[in-house]
Write a structure and sequence with these properties.
The complex is a heterodimer of chains A (about 325) and B (about 90). Chain A is of the alpha+beta class and about 325 residues long. Helices cover about 25% and strands about 35% of the residues of chain A. Chain A has helices at about 20-30, 105-120, 145-155, 185-195, 215, 245-255, 265-280, 305-310; strands spanning about 1-5, 10-15, 40-45, 60-65, 65-75, 75-80, 85-90, 95-100, 125, 130, 135-140, 160-165, 165-170, 175-180, 180-185, 205, 210, 225-235, 240-245, 285, 290-295, 300-305. An eight-stranded mixed beta sheet of chain A has the order 1-2-3-8-7-6-5-4, covered by helices on one side. Chain A has a six-stranded mixed beta sheet with strand order 12-10-11-18-20-19, sandwiched between helices. Chain A starts with a strand and ends in a 9-residue tail after the last helix. The relative contact order of chain A is 0.11. With about 90 residues, chain B is an alpha+beta fold. Chain B has helices at about 35-60, 65-80; strands at about 5, 10-15, 20-25, 30-35, 85. In chain B, strand 3 (about 20-25) and strand 4 (about 30-35) form a beta hairpin. The longest helix of chain B has 25 residues, at about 35-60. Classes of the chains: A alpha+beta (about 325), B alpha+beta (about 90). The interface between A and B is medium-sized, with 13 and 13 residues.
Chain lengths: ~325, ~90
Amino acid sequence: MTHFDLLGYGLEVEGASPSLVAWLEDYWGFSHIEVPSSAAVKLHVVASETITFPPDKPSTLNFPEGTVTCVNRDPIIWLGNATCGVHLKLEGAVTLEVWGDDPGLFAMLHMALTEVLRVKGLLPLHAAVVVENERATAFLGASGSGKTTTLLTAVDQGWQALCEDFVWLEPATLQLYRWDRGLRLLPDTYERFGHLVGDVPAVQAAGKRFVRYRDLGWTAPESSLSELFWLRRNNVKNTERQTMTNLEATRLLWEATGVPISRLARENASRSIPNILTQINPNYLLVGTAPFKLVRGGENSLCIDDARANHQISPEVSL
Amino acid sequence: MTTHYKPATDLIETDLGTELALLNPTTQAMFSLNKTGRLIWQVLPQLGIGGAAQAVVKQFDVSPKQAEQEAKGLVESLLESGLLEPV
């Protein structure tokens, strides 16, 4: 049996192949809490012959890398099909059964484990997060909106990187838990920020250069979320901060966290999002074409110091 | 006979206190209800349009006729938007 921390809830894995264990270690083997829960989530690898996949017409779940078929008998959820899939039981003691070895298995398992943590009350956030004085600032946005570039801009100015792509949020405390291993840099991003990366080992994957945080020596302390920005490309020179309504913030938080599969996880998220909005006022960050500088404002709010300020043409711009 | 209604399957509600956000996860369309609409939405499944109108009269400074019109209009809009289903 292999044990994973799973943010203190514990995940006990039985019968897994070495490749599945390696995948779990890479994507789910983050240690944040030392004492595991007594009610660990159980994951059993079983033979596909033992599975009776329900005959219901499946629905299709979309995720960034593709689609997964799903039979939802909430709180029992089936992903995949009779030859390869995941059976997820969310009531009582949470269990997962896994069978088959199609390439799509890992995506299904990722979806299932994400649902488990959602049911436990956590929210996944696709975000780049930087830390300064133990205060975390999260940058959210659609693919290509500039999350990595903004993160590296901050790192270049002395902030610490917590994560580049994915983080778990504990809504009650706003505590963030890093859930990725490194930076994925497009060629033009590497060209601009290569001095931050240096000659550390890198792997090419999907046109991006992957560099592990541990090789960079970047060890930002895990911190509470202090500010949250939704990034948008701005076709003008300057970068600007812009307010958003509560309704916009709600929609964008749902977009950043994704819609859960199960009723219980949806209810958790529906309760959590208003709680987050009572503690944090998300803003837009309209990312301009010119270099900009991120600084803390007088009340610890984030300010933008655009390139002109560096040349003493205008004072620091506080937005 | 009173017609009863229920929220559409899979609809996601986010209660922001002063307003209620309704998200259709399939279309990603989001709708918001103000204080009056939020109250009607919350009591409609149990009380129907008539009961929802009475609840509005109790809580807001509106006439019964106006409240009834508002409740009916909101229900029509919610049905058209696929956010509400008759039971």
